[in-house]
Amino acid sequence: MPPASTIMPPFHLAFPVADLAATERFYVDLLGCRIGRQAEKWIDFDFFGHQISAHLRPEETGLAKRNEVDGDQVPVRHFGAILDWDKWQDLADRLQKAETQFIIEPHIRFKGQVGEQATMFLLDPSGNALEFKSFKDMSQIFAT
């Protein structure tokens, strides 16, 4: 496996949504994603340099079960992005100003330990859990 500092190609993730218009507003207007290709039942987004595809499948949406991680109840099924420290803070500030309802408020996890990180969790309009995190020291991403 290449070291964490190696530039990696973008990943692709497809996920179900209940409402494409609400999904578009959330990912574009709130998170700042660009729209890529789209059709009647799906939209591709540029999600911080990665390609995610929202597919209209309301029957497949819903909340994931949660596990405890460092005192927080983290949704087991979630996706997100690891951002530079300043970009993470800018996003946290923007989301707080927009009065976003977090399922886990922006904070520092594993404070003073290996893998210390900034993290926050929120839900998209279909109940998909998203985590945004950052490390002051990116070499800590895979630290044990």
Automatic annotation (TrEMBL):
**VOC domain location, by residue?**
9-135
Q: Coiled-coil segments, which residues?
A: none
Q: Which domain of life is it from?
A: Bacteria
Q: Which Pfam families does the protein's record reference?
A: Glyoxalase (PF00903)
Q: This protein is called what?
A: VOC family protein
Taxonomy of the source species: Bacteria, Pseudomonadati, Pseudomonadota, Alphaproteobacteria, Rhodospirillales
